[in-house]
Amino acid sequence: MVHIPSPSRYLTMVYNYCGNSGLKLPAISLGLWHNFGGVDSFENAKEMILSAFDAGITHFDLANNYGPPPGSAEENFGKILAAHLKPYRDEIIVSTKAGYKMWEGPYGEWGSRKYMLSSLDQSLKRLKLDYVDIFYSHRPDPETPLEETMGALDQAVRQGKALYAGISNYKPDQTKRASEILRKLGTPCILHQPKYSMFERWVEPDLLAVLEKEGIGLIAFSPLAQGLLTDRYLKGIPDGSRASKAHGFLKKNDITPEKLVKIAALNELAKKRGQSLAQMAIAWLLKDKRVTSVLVGASSVGQLKTNLATLDKLDFTPYELQEIEEVLK
Ligand SMILES: NC(=O)c1ccc[n+]([C@@H]2O[C@H](COP(=O)([O-])OP(=O)(O)OC[C@H]3O[C@@H](n4cnc5c(N)ncnc54)[C@H](OP(=O)(O)O)[C@@H]3O)[C@@H](O)[C@H]2O)c1
């Protein structure tokens, strides 16, 4: 049944331009890495996607390998889109990526033209789409010339199978080179997707400046450090949480006593702001105007709604920022 979306879906969301491009993304986007695969509840996945769209989240982020099993998140999203959101395709930005292992043999991962373009064709079939909006190189390939990987992104755009090109997990110097190559090809890189959160600040020393100079937007992945920057683990590891699942990428031993001390202190600071820790962690990323979007994950509609309410309070006083720095030191 076609979904009837909320008529107020565009009233509260903030939309930011991706670098120098003409594409706007919602300040909060939804990622389908966990909780949308074949092992997860299809009904819950559907509810999250529809309520995200109702709240103005126009951007859904995928990759060939999301699941498990790999490919199943694209399949599920394709089914949901076809059954419930088909009339709204032009209101939606779908991204996918190629870079990690998808099939056996020498052409099943990394950055060759052969792999990148075959993978995109497979993704389009799973998604039941003619094109994706953004196609990313998921990780830099140390063996393949960067010209070839970027050439594959350019070719995907010229074939009409993607509208824009992006890169993910590229270091500052690789980003600069990738951007130069793509610009020469006439398909500018519009978006970089790095890991960025209060706990993962590798982008700050150099990458942010490169992105600004090159006119590339930043979409931050794992902004909640996979759930650590929330109240989820304050009283142990709850059943059903990412850290409790065998296939979850957050491991029990990532939740160290030192991290828990910081999380508890941050949680108190968030309370003083009248926010949850998840909300403070998202707002903290959005305070930098170079951050186009924060790419959250969620396992329930409730979490998504909490995260969306971040938009009610985005500003920080210098004192609050200082207090956060003290905790993160
Ligand atoms: N480019 C790349 O290499 C790369 C790598 C990783 C991720 N990504 C992208 O980034 C997206 C987000 O990554 P992520 O899922 O790691 O993001 P995240 O937002 O850091 O973590 C999401 C997890 O945090 C917990 N959570 C979310 N909101 C919460 C709330 N309000 N209260 C309590 N817990 C909450 C949930 O964990 P529970 O499941 O425990 O409830 C949820 O699954 C991915 O889906 C993917 O699209 C890209």
What is the rounded distance between the termini?
51 Å
The DSSP helix count reads: 10
Order of H and E elements? EEEHEHEHEHEHEHEHHEHH
CATH topology tier name: TIM Barrel
On the 0 to 100 scale, the average pLDDT is: 97
| Number of E strands | 10
Work out the strand percent.
5-15%
**Helical residues, percent:** 25-40%
CATH architecture: Alpha-Beta Barrel
Number of domain units:
1
Q: Can you lay out the helices and strands and say which pair or pack?
A:
Blueprint lengths: L14 E3 L6 E3 L1 E4 L10 H13 L4 E3 L10 H14 L7 E6 L14 H15 L4 E6 L8 H13 L3 E7 L3 H14 L3 E5 L13 H8 L2 E5 L35 H16 L4 H10 L4 E6 L4 H8 L9 H11 L1
Parallel strand pairs: 3-4, 3-10, 4-5, 5-6, 6-7, 7-8, 8-9, 9-10
Antiparallel strand pairs: 1-2
Helix pairs in contact: 1-2, 2-3, 3-4, 4-5, 5-6, 7-10
The structure holds NADP nicotinamide-adenine-dinucleotide phosphate.
Give a short summary of the structure.
The chain is built from ten helices and ten strands. The protein is an alpha/beta fold.
How would you describe this protein?
- The protein contains ten helices and ten strands.
- It is of the alpha/beta class and 329 residues long.
- It has a single domain, classed as TIM Barrel (Alpha-Beta Barrel).
- It has an eight-stranded parallel beta barrel with strand order 3-4-5-6-7-8-9-10, surrounded by seven helices.
- Helix 1 crosses helix 2, helix 2 (72-85) packs across helix 3 (113-127) and helix 5 (172-185) packs parallel to helix 6.
- The structure holds NADP nicotinamide-adenine-dinucleotide phosphate.
- The site of NADP nicotinamide-adenine-dinucleotide phosphate has 30 residues, from strand 10 and helix 9.
